[in-house]
Specification:
- The complex is a heterodimer of chains A (31) and B (165).
- Chain A has 31 residues and is mainly alpha-helical.
- Chain A has one domain.
- Chain A starts with a helix and ends with a helix.
- Chain A has two helices and no strands.
- The chains are: A mainly alpha (31), B mainly alpha (165).
Chain lengths: 31, 165
């Protein structure tokens, strides 16, 4: 997929950001 | 107007209609003053109504719309499942679990996902009726890729909820 050229090359940056975000989201949400 | 533009408009209308309905249901039942977590459906609703249709509209940003739409559906699935488990009250019998839990809302959300997916597939791979479906299931942009990400996001979210309190 050409649109994600930067992301496919630097996929690990995206995954670190995403994992941090979802880990934080799990911490932040309490029902 | 070409058929392509017409079908794209129909699918975008479906996407906005579903998003608007979701946004309105959330704003009716979740008051943000009650729980700051309810800011999540508010922000997701605004993104779904304004940002995602705009991303889907342009060929250059189509894939970003597809990914954002999919991840908002994953976030919705995970947080609504969490909500259902955390506030498990009445549903005990199998029909009640189906009809009174959040499964219903999660299914509607996946309806929105599939509208977005249809839009993406038609725009990316064209409208040729004889074109065979290609690509490996577990690779982007196919369903297996989404299921892997749903499982991974659920797991990381669960760890964040359990380990960091």
């Amino acid at each position: 997929m050409n649109q994600f050229k930067w992301f496919t090359r630097n996929w690990w940056i995206l995954h670190i950001v995403a994992v941090t975000f979802f880990f934080w989201l799990g911490h932040a949400i309490h029902f | 107007m070409t058929i392509k533009t017409y079908i794209r408009s129909i699918l975008l209308a479906a996407l906005v209609a579903l998003s608007l309905a979701g946004f309105m249901v959330h704003s009716r039942i979740h008051l943000m003053a009650q729980n700051p977590s309810f800011i999540v459906p508010f922000v997701a609703g605004i993104l779904s109504i304004v940002v995602i249709p705009a991303l889907f509209w342009f060929k250059r940003t189509l894939a970003y719309g597809y990914v954002l739409n999919g991840f908002l559906c994953i976030i919705g699935t995970v947080t609504m499942s969490h909500f259902a488990i955390a506030r498990w009250s009445a549903p005990n019998s199998p029909p009640d679990i189906l009809l009174k839990s959040m499964i219903l809302d999660i299914l509607i959300l996946w309806g929105k996902f599939f509208v977005g997916k249809a839009l993406f597939e038609l725009e990316t791979f064209g409208y040729d009726p004889n074109r065979p479906k290609a690509g490996i299931t577990y690779r982007y942009p196919n369903m297996g890729w989404w299921l892997i990400h749903l499982a991974a996001v659920s797991f990381v979210y669960y760890l964040g909820n359990r380990l960091w309190s």
